[in-house]
Design brief:
This protein is of the alpha+beta class. It has two domains: 2-105, no CATH class; 109-176, no CATH class. Helix content is 57%, strand content 14%. The protein contains six helices and five strands; from the N terminus they run H-H-H-H-H-E-E-E-H-E-E. It is elongated, with a radius of gyration of 23 Å.
Length: 184
């Protein structure tokens, strides 16, 4: 058993670290953010940054192979297969990389932001929490994040009442809450 552990220790270490990151670290970072803020950042900046990172890394790898082999054909061939592995890794680890970006974002507070939300209830229903759908006038969207609904809703809230909620703005401009949203 000991020989087996010694033989596969690096694989076991990798899978243990991967499991901890995926099941503990990633959900832990999402607890500080509203889902729409993460989605907006991901679609506007993060995916473009991953593409540019890929392009720069492939260019550097090509240059390194070219300097080492001094053959353009061999360098292109080796770079092609290396870029496939790199693209696969970036795709597979995209969620973990995003979680590290969210973690780094929270480490530096640049500013505070107070967002207004307008109380919105489904037409013809009682003004209760299950029927409460806050509307964010700055983005013109109804917020579907149940954790934010839990924070914003309180009894006595009427249709079109304005609720203000304070966020901190992190290093990358992503809004976050200083304490995690409570679990349901």
């Amino acid at each position: 058993m000991r020989e087996l552990f010694i033989k596969y220790r690096w694989r076991l270490f990798f899978w243990a670290l991967f499991t901890i990151l995926l099941f503990y670290f990633v959900p832990g970072q999402n607890d500080y953010y509203v889902k729409t803020d993460i989605e907006d950042f991901s679609s506007e900046y993060f995916k473009k940054a991953l593409v540019w990172t890929f392009i720069i890394l492939v260019s550097l790898i090509f240059m390194a192979w070219l300097i080492k082999s001094k053959s353009v054909k061999q360098s292109l061939f080796q770079t092609f297969f290396t870029s496939l592995v790199l693209a696969f890794c970036l795709f597979i680890f995209q969620t973990i990389i995003l979680s590290f970006v969210l973690f780094i974002n929270r480490q530096v507070k640049k500013d505070s932001l107070t967002k207004p939300y307008i109380a919105n209830y489904m037409a013809g229903t009682q003004e209760t929490k299950p029927n409460f759908h806050p509307y964010e006038p700055t983005t013109k969207r109804i917020v579907a994040d149940s954790r934010l609904v839990d924070k914003l809703y309180h009894t006595g809230l009427k249709q079109n009442d304005t609720i203000y909620f304070r966020f901190d703005v992190g290093l990358f401009g992503i809004n976050y809450q200083p304490t995690p949203f409570p679990d349901r």
